């Protein structure tokens, strides 16, 4: 176990180092400089600004400083908004995004598992087909289209939900639903197929012949075993929710980190793009690692020391 | 209890008949096709895909309007017999733009899938065939790159390299090939110890021949499925990037840029968002069900 975690940690750090270096070098070769604006700055001021942000040093010194800063959880300043650092942005926007993300994950897992279970228990009957059509639709409709459709029909046309902004619980429902739609569909399919696999096992037959009620069999014997693969999906789920939040927050005017990130992309605020990318990468890789470790603990059949499944 | 022998009678199986093959022999791909045909949803997806491709080719010629020419006296017109899908804020015909966008979106999807195929087959093929240290090194590299969050890297590349069709395809391919290479490696690993590969080696076939004549053709099934499923994810990524404002530059239209332009006007001119958005969904849906159908048809045991 310890060996496995160590190995995974090493890979995680290498991946992180790769993306941190990539952000650094990409931003150096990016066209235009961060102070480019309509007005041409006098050369003295530009030199001063460069000195202030350390841009006058050779690249390796800047690279080293950058790495050290990241290790110290300092994601640097914003070039466009002088008084704000990336850390300020994260502290301000991330709690909102986190709340939205958690709500979406809850919806995705709850509805997805429910749909999957119904589909598997009514295999090849109409509930199965209905659930699977919902799942295929969920996979085919990208979150930002789902968001605009939900907003148009449920908020603008029917007025059931508020159109945008982030004020009350009602404001969170549509964005969370839109964010959850695709992962929910994946979870439903995953749950269904693993339920079907488990239902075909001999121990289910044994349980039935012992005279256990179908409710007990479903809850105690089937679902417990069938939900294991769903746990593995939690990593990609986090990634999906995270990237999905960029567009969802934009559509619903939610002041989260995703919306800030998109604004910084449109402003070409390079330091913010770098900082937020690195922050997101750390978040993602750590959560994927945690999910993998949790999976190993939950399912004793997985031998962690042997590396990944299927290798 | 005794049962007398006269209670049994021979129903007439003849030994000579037992070995007779009554069904015509089927090649692997014929068999796959038969199974695929039974899957109604997949068949529907294939028809839908055919229609979409047909419209992408001929759609722009069906209307007298051009996708790029402005007509400011006719802006934001609702769908009518004149402009079938309405017009946008510069008076451009949405029908013409939708099918022009279909060309670009489908082109991006197919191009990304082809690049993934080439790099993935070479990388995974070499890693799987050589094995040992080479395999270890190549796959570790792929693992590390795989850890890099895909969309974030693509966004970063688009910001740095500037917007455009080529940049977008390059950005998607940088980590897109890893999935394909893993699948090819797995296939090659399991196939290379088969007797017919040994036989080919004994007959003096070189590595190139074994790869191109034996290992790759026999891995074609999973490769095909992966490709079919890469296309919709690339189309999705394109739309997503365009939606972030990192898409193609005007007057070029893709479904993503059209949806992005249509979003702010959704309340008053919903058709500007509705048409491109619907076609993004339909295309992704069609590719997904065809891909799923292919996977089920290729490997009936792996039904998901």
Automatic annotation (TrEMBL), chain A:
Localization terms from the record: Cell membrane
Membrane topology: Multi-pass membrane protein
Residues passing through the membrane, by range: 9-30, 98-121, 133-156, 168-188, 230-252, 272-298
InterPro entries: BPD_transp_1_N (IPR045621), MetI-like (IPR000515), MetI-like_sf (IPR035906)
Organism: Cytobacillus oceanisediminis
Protein name as it appears in the record: Oligopeptide transport system permease protein
Keywords attached to this entry: Cell membrane, Membrane, Transmembrane, Transmembrane helix, Transport
Cellular component GO terms held in the UniProt record: plasma membrane
Keyword RNA-binding listed: no
Domain ABC transmembrane type-1: 94-295
From TrEMBL, chain B:
Residue intervals passing through the bilayer: 41-62, 104-129, 141-161, 223-248, 273-294
Keyword field: Cell membrane, Membrane, Transmembrane, Transmembrane helix, Transport
Superkingdom of the organism of origin: Bacteria
Gene3D superfamilies recorded: MetI-like
Domain ABC transmembrane type-1: 102-291
Coiled coil spans: none
InterPro entries: BP-dependent_transpt_permease, MetI-like, MetI-like_sf, OppC_N
Pfam families tied to this protein: BPD_transp_1, OppC_N
Compartments where found: Cell membrane
BP terms from Gene Ontology: transmembrane transport
Predominant localisation class: membrane
Topology term for the membrane: Multi-pass membrane protein
This protein's record includes keyword Transmembrane helix: yes
Endoplasmic reticulum recorded as keyword: no
Gene Ontology CC: one annotated term: plasma membrane
Family assignment from sequence similarity: Belongs to the binding-protein-dependent transport system permease family.
The name this protein goes by in its record: Oligopeptide transport system permease protein
